[in-house]
């Protein structure tokens, strides 16, 4: 593993992420203190009136969110382009063309805009009608949408970006289906996931819930890894469903969302007078909500990552126990680390804020410890 190359790659990626986040927060703050947000709201209201909607609050919200979303994306897209395209090509990981990257970016922005419009319209409707309890209703709606997306993403969202087809390797398909049955987890198929038109990285996933749960194996994984290695990787993914990590994550995310909306409620109430807003339901206060959410998100990131790393370590142990094949686990982790340019020695601070998985070296050491305790050769 080329540690120096991997370290530089991840350091530059983290720097781009931090700069993008800081720049976004600065833009939102600037819109508030300069009156730009109020001017944008006035523009949206004027447009609503000019097209015959009078002072329709809903149309004003829709137009404001549309303008704000496009404004933020245009001014932050250089960071996205650098991290998602330039950096990936510089370090030999990308295979996609610029046109392909732009197409995916436009689709992502369009989908994000749909959710932003729906969410913003709902939040501001609750702010107008239930100013004291809007945060509770909005948090509940957000949690419900999260559950729906976890269930429907494999059949509604992922196909908008990726190509899938049933896995045609019969022996491997039957082996993985049997493994899922052994783990008492029902699946609705095993699919080959085309990633080679974007990246040289390998990946696997067990996505969806209930009737949408399916195994996804990237073509880059299928091309390079043995059936034993793929089986142990899939066993790790199965563990998340066996241990209900997805549902646990939804519950934790819902709790933090509730706290976040309540914090936004308090901050918004305190900001009305100082920012010259026409009450808490004034859509010009959207940047206040976004800043509050962003700051809280950064604050709880170490907690979320710590919980995620604990789940990942448990999933590794489950995969080893289910397959009893630590040698395949070790070889798969090494190969993934090299192919995906994993960082070998991230600092504790970096792990706290950026790592949802333990570093590869820690996972390898844990696998060897498990093998030694189980007296299974590696």
**Succession of helices and strands:** HHHHHHEHEEEHHHHHHH
- How would the global form be characterised? elongated
Distance between the termini: 20 Å
Assembly state (oligomeric): single chain
Structural class: mainly alpha
Helix content: over 70%
Gyration radius (Cα, Å) is 23 Å
**How would you characterize the largest beta sheet?**
4 strands, mixed
The average pLDDT value, as a whole number, equals 94
- Alpha plus pi helix count: 14
Which regions are unreliable across 5 or more consecutive residues at pLDDT < 50?
Answer: none
Our estimate of the beta-strand percent is under 5%
Describe this structure in words.
It is built from 14 helices and four strands. The chain is mainly alpha-helical. The chain has a four-stranded mixed sheet with strand order 1-2-4-3. A hairpin with a 6-residue loop joins strand 3 (204-207) and strand 4 (214-218). The chain is elongated and about 70 Å long. The model has no long low-confidence stretch (mean pLDDT 94).
